[in-house]
Amino acid sequence: MDGHMHGMAPPGQNGTGNTHNSVMHMTFFWGKNVDILFNDWPGQNSGGMYVLALFVVFVLVMIVEWLSHSNLIKQGSNHVVAGLVQTLMHAMRVALAYIVMLAVMSFNGGVLIVAVAGHSLGFLIFGSRVFRKASDGDDKVSDLPPLSTC
């Protein structure tokens, strides 16, 4: 054994012989030098791109919450069409949730905080009773929505 896992490039190389300065973290860390979702994105030593990456994660999480709590199907709709719309919305929600999960797996503390903040604000806006009209449903106290097992 040469100390490296088979099929994996040595540290500092991407498998093609080109050097790569990125380090894959396996514990949470703080800093803007991170790869989120794509190789070299947001890039090294680029604070502005890091903030943009955090914003993108936040928006993705807000969309996940909107999809989780929206009801785009009207009463009396065709059941087949309604089922197809529900299935499409579910597929989009799961795909975006997996993308957010992969972003959090960058082990960057800022990404985790933005993801949790986005879920919290998204639930406040789209899922809680704070912004619902009284006519949107009965006045019963509802439980938290079921957690998805993505």
TrEMBL record:
GO terms for molecular function: copper ion transmembrane transporter activity. It is found in: Membrane. The chain crosses the membrane at residues 47-68. One of its GO terms (cellular component) is plasma membrane. The keyword Transmembrane applies. It is a multi-pass membrane protein. Keywords: Copper, Copper transport, Ion transport, Membrane, Transmembrane, Transmembrane helix, Transport. Belongs to the copper transporter (Ctr) (TC 1.A.56) family. SLC31A subfamily. This is Copper transport protein.
